[in-house]
Amino acid sequence: MDNFTSDISGQQFPLEQRILGASIRQPIFKLIRKEYPNFGKDKYIAATELTRFKEAYITEFLKDESGQLSQLDQQVIQSFKDNKVISASMDNDGATTASVGERVADKVAEFGGSWTFIISFVVFLLIWIAVNMYWLNNKGFDPYPFILLNLILSCVAALQAPVIMMSQNRQEAKDRERARNDYLVNLKAELEIRELHEKIDHLIIRKEQELVDVQRDQVEKLGFLLQKMEKIEEAFKNK
């Protein structure tokens, strides 16, 4: 296996890890120059060595105004280092089961905000009023002005409101978690896209360098053939 010598550490690395300084993005290149001032565009660095500078650049890029990384940014950087998929870890984290009270609150909120509840409740009110006013001739268990019905409606409203608020709070928590997950995925995707662009640039520059080397080799061979032809012509002339 062919090896090359890194210009920053002097160690031997496989040739496929060789990266030309000209193919490195400018912010990362500046970080390398801070630590190794002699490193230039024509120098070479190994991909494993470049990873350390990429992580340092990403850390500086994600720091907020206070100069600190948020917990979400640290999670993204860790997944970037470990080469893990964020969405898979989020699926595992979101596998928590709701309690009985939370499930009841969700069902009550779902039913209370439906046309089924509205229509059924209107039918109940009409039946209550019709039974007391017409069937029992307003002398039944709840005559006009329906004090018992008002009490029931007040109790339903008093109980239904906090239950619906519990469900809304759970939904808000879910929305915050979705927003957090979207931020993590988008940030990881942006970093991966930058990494992909850098790899493509490196491949293009490497292929161009290989073409230049091939052309130089061909020119040298042509020069050698021309010299041999000139020597042969001189030999014929001398004869």
Characterization of the model:
With 239 residues, the protein is mainly alpha-helical. The chain is built from 7 helices and 4 strands. It has helices at 26-35, 47-62, 71-82, 86-93, 100-112, 115-135, 147-238, and strands at 3-5, 12-14, 18-20, 44-46. It has a two-stranded antiparallel ribbon. Strands 3-4 form a two-stranded antiparallel sheet. Helix 3 crosses helix 7. The radius of gyration is 38 Å and the shape is rod-shaped. The two termini are 50 Å apart.
Number of helices: 7
Major sheet: 2 strands, antiparallel
Quote the beta fraction. 5-15%
Structural class: mainly alpha
SSE order:
EEEHEHHHHHH
- Per DSSP E runs of 2 or more residues, the count of β-strands stands at 4
Q: What keywords describe this structure?
A:
transmembrane, 7 helices, DUF1003, 72% helix, transmembrane helix, two-stranded antiparallel ribbon, mainly alpha, 239 residues
How is this fold's topology laid out?
Elements: E1 3-5, E2 12-14, E3 18-20, H1 26-35, E4 44-46, H2 47-62, H3 71-82, H4 86-93, H5 100-112, H6 115-135, H7 147-238
Antiparallel strand pairs: 1-2, 3-4
What would you say about this model in short?
With 239 residues, the protein is mostly helical. The chain has helices at 26-35, 47-62, 71-82, 86-93, 100-112, 115-135, 147-238, and strands spanning 3-5, 12-14, 18-20, 44-46.
